[in-house]
Design a protein that fits this description.
The protein is of the alpha/beta class. It has 8 helices and 7 strands. Keywords: Oxidoreductase.
């Protein structure tokens, strides 16, 4: 186990990639605070055993973030790892997008990572060590026409990762990102895999010929959180089945 005696916070942890990350960190020996706005997180934490706790919070709000940090310190004593995973999408054409929806997605997807990263880093500085992992996306580099705020937010996440890494390096705190392609989460199933035609489109641009699993992203998070990645900071690792390297479509098995 790579993370014995480490304490982690995972946001957006009730399902999908967040829950998979929390489970993998627990399996690697960490104690983990699962954080989500959804109350189902309590059940998720119970399923992970005594090394997991749940805290309900809207991490786009500073007061909730401060309370999350306080609850984690009370439960576990310190903070070594933060997985900034919370995120939402909103589909609308550019000309039809409401300002309120643009602001909401940016607040949840980007501002939350600033707030959580800053608050956790202030605790990590005390120990002169730590690892922060920001969940980005291939859509930080690519664009989907009707996912305007999501694409913008993920581009911002990549730059936030870099500037955090540079600022926090003197304190022994590493900051890296993960950019998943299409992962088989509930969010992806609703947003981009809602029909056979949509599935065909996704697989036609995925050289490995399949979608990813949340556990495959969680494995990267565990690596970045561990000393195996001790000389990595300011990087974003793309778990995308080869999509970003592709400039043409590939045949899809029917």
């Amino acid at each position: 186990m790579k993370l014995v005696d480490k304490v982690a916070i995972v946001t957006g942890a009730t399902q999908g990639i967040g829950l998979a990350c929390a489970a993998r960190l627990v399996a690697e020996g960490a104690r983990v605070m699962l954080v989500d706005i959804k109350p189902e997180g309590e059940q998720a934490a119970q399923q992970l055993g005594g090394a997991a706790r749940f805290f309900a919070a809207d991490v786009s709000q500073k007061a909730d973030v401060d309370a999350m940090i306080a609850a984690t310190l009370e439960a576990f004593g310190h903070i070594d790892i933060l997985v900034n995973n919370v995120g939402v999408t909103h589909a609308a054409d550019f000309l039809d997008l409401d300002e309120s929806d643009f602001d909401r997605v940016l607040r949840i997807n980007l501002k939350s990572m600033f707030l959580c990263g800053q608050a956790a880093a202030r605790e990590m500085v005390k120990r002169q060590s730590g690892s922060i992992i920001n969940m980005s996306s291939v859509n930080s580099e690519l664009a989907i026409p009707n996912q305007v705020p999501y694409v913008v937010s993920k581009g911002g996440v990549n730059q936030l990762t870099k500037v955090m890494a540079l600022n926090l390096a003197p304190h022994g705190i590493r900051v890296n990102g993960i950019g998943p392609g299409t992962i088989l989460t509930e969010l992806a199933k609703k947003a981009v895999l809602g029909s056979p035609e949509a599935r065909h489109t996704i697989l036609s641009r995925t050289p490995l010929g399949r979608c990813g699993e949340p556990e495959e992203v969680a494995a990267i998070a565990a690596f970045l959180a561990s000393d195996d990645a001790s000389y990595m900071t300011g990087q974003t690792i793309y778990a995308d089945g080869g999509r970003l390297a592709l400039n043409y479509t590939v045949p899809v098995k029917q």
